[in-house]
Design brief:
By secondary structure, the chain is mainly α. 38% of the residues lie in helices and 9% in strands. The chain folds into 2 domains: 32 residues, no CATH class; 138 residues, no CATH class. A 3-stranded mixed beta sheet has the order 1-2-3. This is Sporulation lipoprotein YhcN/YlaJ-like protein. Keywords: Lipoprotein, Signal. It comes from Bacillus methanolicus (strain MGA3 / ATCC 53907).
Length: 225
Amino acid sequence: MRRAMLIAGMCGIAALTACNTNNSATEKGLYNRTGNTINVNDDRSELYNRGDYRDLRNVSADFGYVRHQRSGILGDGGSNNHYAAIDREQLADIIGKYCTDVPNVDDVSTLVTDEEVLIVYKTDSKNRYKTADQVKKMAMSVVPRWYHVYVTDNERLRKNVENFATLDSNSRNIDSMINGLVKQMLKSPQGREMNNGENANGETRGGINDNFDRDNIRENTKTGK
């Protein structure tokens, strides 16, 4: 009897200790909302941490530093694996939310491919050129620099963009279909040129965007071809 009481008492102490530990860990931010153990700064492999701004002020104040080295093994392509780590749907989500912060923009559809960002937005802005520039730069601030960004306030193209949601880079005739949609989007204001070497969509002057030349698309749009 005494032995049974002793064992029960030890179990109770262990349970209380575990509860206190969990409460303490939670208070220190050691557990996220899903219950998975993480460090204080939240090391989930997400592009940006989520949550209330007041809860993230300490996290966002931290600098970020990472060092990478190219593999010294001849033929080792491991350093290229990071290109496949981009979550395009998450990028589209972030871009869309950022763009709704642009004045006079309240409805944004965003498509992220392997090299383009296509954005259709609703606006009542009186300065379409300025709004287009702001929307475009929101997207440019999020995606890798090789991306080209195309925007339009022509809401009739929203369905066209949505139709690509179930496709991918290997879909049949995907390049020509994206090509046709970009041609229509370029009829809308695209904002200022990015710099002296890039046009408004981030294309290098005279350069080729992999499978097709966007400069030719733009020129054909102007000439009505």
